[in-house]
Structure formats: C-alpha cells, structure tokens
Amino acid sequence: MADEPAGSDVPHTRAAPGGPSRRLRLQALELLLTEQRFRISRHVHARSAPGREPPGPGPLPRPATAVDSPLRELVDAVPVPFTIIRPVPGEPGADPEFLYMGHNRAAREYAEHQLPRGAMPPWTGPVLLFDRFPTMAGTPVLRLLREAWRTGLAQGPEPADWPLPVPGGEVIRISSDVWVIPFEELLLLSWERGHEALMAQEAQRLARVCWVEWNLGDGTVEESSGLREVLGLPAGEPPPGLLELGAMVTPESLDALYRAVHDILLSTTRFADCDLRLATGGRRVVRFVAEPVRQAAGPVWVVRAVLHDVTGDRVARSLAERATREARAQRERADTVAEVAERLRDAVLPGFPAELAEHGIEAAAVYRPEGRTARVGGDWYKTRVLPSGKLLVALGDARGHGLDAVTLMAKLRYALAGLAYTGEPVERLTAWLNTVACDDGEESTATAVIARYHPARGLLRWTCAGHPPPVLVRDGRPRLLDPPPGGPGLPLGVLPEAVYTAAETVLRPGDIVLLYSDGLIERRDSDLDRDSARLLRTVEACAGAGVPPGDRALEAFVRAVVDRLTGAHTADDATVLAYRVVDAGAG
After folding, report:
1. Closest-CA residue to 285 (of 317, 258, 262, 322)
2. What are the CA-CA distances from residue 492 to residues 397, 415, 445 (Å)?
3. Predicted confidence band at 2 (pLDDT cuts at 50, 70, 90)?
4. Alpha-carbon gap, residue 341 to 132, rounded angstroms
5. How do residues 529-564 score in pLDDT, each as one tens digit?
6. DSSP states of 409-465 as a string?
7. Which of 184, 214, 322, 508 lies deepest, with the highest CB count within 10 Å?
8. How many other β-carbons are positioned within 10 Å of the β-carbon of residue 224?
9. Strand partners, 192
10. Which DSSP category does 564 fall into?
11. What is the separation, in whole angstroms, between the first and last Cα of the chain?
C-alpha cells in the first residue's frame, strides 16, 4: 500500500499529549485498521458477484412473477418490516428455490431511515433471493425458510449477521433477530434489532460495564448507553473509533491496545484482554476484553468488546499489594519467625461461643503447626451461632504458608462470618467465598468444608470445595461422610462460575463429626485412599473405649488423634475441628 490512507491524520479532539513516538504508534494502529477494511471490502464484493439464473428449464411460471395487488395491500398494511419471498418447488424431494419479491412499506421506510442511500438495490422484478443478497446465504435465514416451507409453521427468531455492500465500495453490517412467517403462498422474512436490548440489560446489571462494536467495514460504532460513563466522556460525545480510543490512552496502554487489535485481526486468537489507562482521565483504568466477529471463510469485520471501569479495583489491589509488602517487611524485621508464628497462631485459633452448649453441642479444636520452622499456614476454622438458632461450622485451608496464606485465610473467615448472617443456604455461601478467592488473584486458592447444623432437626448440611470429607464417629465406629451430589466441588478461587451442591446428614446424640485439613493425613509417596484409611484406623483406636462427655474429654480425644497422625515433625500444618451432638433437639 504505497499511498497513504485517506484521513490518516489522527483526530486530536480527545487525544492525549505525546511526541513523535506516540504518533508512530497511532499511525501503526490506523494502518492496521485500514488494511482490515480493505480485506473486508474485497471479500464481500467477491461474494456479491452476479449469481445463477432463476430455476427451471424455461421462464418462471406466471404466478411467481408478482404479488397480487390485494395481497400486496394487506402486507403493506402490516407495521412490521417484511421481505416478501415466494418459494418455487423443484424436483420431488429437493428443496425449493426462493424468489425475492420485494419488501412491504414498513421495510422500505426502515431502509430509508436506517440504511445508507443505495444500500437496497432497486426493484427489477423477481430474482433469486441469494442472488440479490448473496452474503445472507451463510446465515440461519436459509434454514428458517426451508423449515417454514416444509412445516407451514413460523420459524425463529434467531440472531443473524451479514454484510451488505453499498455504493462507493463500503460495507455495512446487518445484525438482527430474524424469523420467517408463512402467509398464503408466500414467506415473510422479518427482522428486528434485538441484540442491543439484551446486551444493554446486561450492561445495566453490572456496574460501570458497557459493550461496543466497531464495524471495520463502514467505520461505524454501535455501543451501549454506558460507554461514555466508562470512558469519562461528556454526554452527547460521539462514540470513539478504535483509532480515537488509541489517542485517548497512555503510550504503554497504546502498545497493549495495538497488540490486542493485531491479534484479533491477524491471528486465530478467540479474544484479547488488556488494561487501558486513560491519559486524559486522571487515574482511570478500563479493562478491554474483545473478540473478533467474522463470517465463514471471511476476514474479521467487527471487533466486539466489553469495557469495564476497573479503576477502583486496581487502586484497591495496589493498596493491598503495598500493605502486603509492608507486612512482609515487618515480618522480616521481627526477632524470630517463631514470634511472628505465635502471634498469628492466636488469630487462627479462636475460642468457641458459649451458646454452643445451649444448642446441644460440644466443640474442640487442635492446631499443629508445620514442625520444621513453625511457619503459620492457611488452616482456619469458624464456628458461630446464627440468629436463626442454626450453627455455622467451617474449616478450610488456604494455599501456601506465611502472610499470603494468612491474608487469604483471614479474608475467607471474615467473609464467611458476615455472609452467614444472610441466612442463605451453604451452597450459596460457598459460591460467594469462591468469588472472594477468585477476586484475590490467580494464586489465591483454598479448600474448605462449609456446614450448617439445624439443632431442632438434627440435620447437618455441608458443601465441599476440594477438601477432604468429614468423618462421622457413631458408637465408636468412624466413617467418611458421603460426598455431596455430583461429587466434591472445585477448590475456592479456581473457576469464578463454579457450582456447589450440599450433602445432608442426620445426626444423633453422641455423634462426633471431625473436620480436618489435609496436613493431618497427607504423606509423601502415598495416596488419598491410603491416607483416609490410616485416618479411620487412628480415629477408631482413639475412640474405641468411648469418649467421655465434656469439652475437655472431646479435646483430649482430638489431641490423641493429631499426635498419632502427625508426630513431632509434621511436614504441613494440621487442624482438626470436632463437635459432638449432646442433645439433637436443643435450640
């Protein structure tokens, strides 16, 4: 492309200040977009070449050459835009051909107001539909027409997109919900621009999120109502094109935007994701997530993106990272790691609320730190009597050791303590904790068992997020509780949309339930089945003579189990939380 593209001067109305290096970056982005527009135009015009002759060995039968005047008047009276199509049957068993017979009045008015002049070809008589509109052939329209002709029933709506060449070499994009309605001997193809309404509803549901589509064929921009708020533009400001967006961001963000657009247009990537810092909006940061839209075997002709103002999130993350660095520096300045471990250990071993006894429950917990360096890990537990009289019981294990693990542990514990007051079922509480872990970063994962005990019913409902299952000790015999329907869920922080289900266990007076972290049972060169079998043997040995009543006796039983399984130099921290049903109907 020896000649410089027309209009190569970057618009300056919203451009951030910059020198020659910035101008070169913008020129590279402009060249990339101009070349893509050329590819789209070449592809669409190649597919829009004159097509086949009408079907049949001779001229079309006379009834197929026109729409009867009374029928035309009736169709024109309908206020919904229609393309009028007449099926022409072929050989027995073969699909019919479809003739384009024109549009009704509402469709002609739609074209006059919504499409560029000349976008709709002048009426020259009946013609094969896909000869008049060849770029429509790769859409669901053909299938809907065939089904409507075969069944006599209305079909759709379904979303459809196709390019439409207009005089001057430009290409516009038609994107609508389409359906086909049989009517007398005709088929009426109607359309409605429905996808914007759906996306607008989603954008309104999310705070400071919008969508935008850049049509590279004609340079137009379609956007949701939140675009200007996300980008900090005044009301009434035209939506920026991709090139204008590049002029609004910092040089570092311009590089990221160019790479994202380049990958979308010229590689097989399914989406691109980057942060854009606006040079003219203070510290405003916008997350840019975009995907290509193309027709089969054609070039990318639309860049569809979701823009999310993440300024608050990025500022909070920056503050959190700074706080973590400061905490790490303070720990390094401490006299010994053991002193830090001792202080933090007090935080992960809270006491039990006195109301447990009023609800017929005895509880005990034992924590054993990792033996070699006394490092505090991510083990945590929580017990609480809720306003409803039900009991929250949970135990989890955040990944790793040290302040990072303790930070995530604390977030999960305190988040669960507050969320439990909503009264939502444990499935929802677990999903919310998963969201907390996902938002904390890619390395922030954890496992947990979240349970709620209903004293009046003696019912325990619990979920499992990648954690070892609880042990039920009944009449001195232990067994692993059956997992929830569908098996254990994913660990917290792995997949934002993970779904969790709950298992239900009816407890009887004298039953003991043990929740424990994997550090209690995991051993090198072993597997989960052998580790679980060793746990059950140990629990049975310690409970064989019975566990006397009282919190102290229950704690002694738990401590005996931990001592036998961990020894003096455990390789990971281990926590066991035990609670015993004294009166199943209390509370």
Report:
1. 317
2. 10, 13, 5
3. very low
4. 77
5. 889 999 999 999 998 888 999 989 999 999 999 999
6. HHHHHHHHHHHGGG---HHHHHHHHHHHHHHT-TT--EEEEEEEEETTTTEEEEEEE
7. 214
8. 21
9. 177
10. H
11. 81
What single string gives the DSSP state of each residue in 73-104?
HHHHTSSS-EEEEEEE--STTSPPEEEEEEE-
**What does the pLDDT read at residue 459?**
94
Half-sphere exposure of 228 (CA within 13 A, CB side): 8
Instruction: Concatenate the DSSP letters of all residues of 462-513 into one string.
Output: EEEES-PPPEEEETTEEEEPPPPTTS-BPPBTS-TT-----EEEE--TT-EE
Asked if residues 217 and 294 have their Cβ atoms less than 8 Å apart, the reply is no
Q: Are 251 and 22 spatial neighbours (Cβ–Cβ below 8 Å)?
A: yes
What pLDDT sits at residue 204? 54
What pLDDT, in 10s, does the model give residues 57-78?
Answer: 333 333 344 566 666 777 777 7
Distance CA 172, CA 115 (A): 8
Note the pTM of the prediction, 2 decimals.
0.44
| Locus of tokens 């209009």 | 7
Helices 528-543, 551-566: axis angle to 10 degrees equals 140
pLDDT digits (tens, 9 = 90+) for 148-162: 999 989 998 888 877
Hey, what amino acid is at 434? N
Provide the percentage of residues in the chain whose pLDDT is more than 90.
30
For the residues 275-292, what does the mean pLDDT come to? 86
| 345, amino acid identity | R
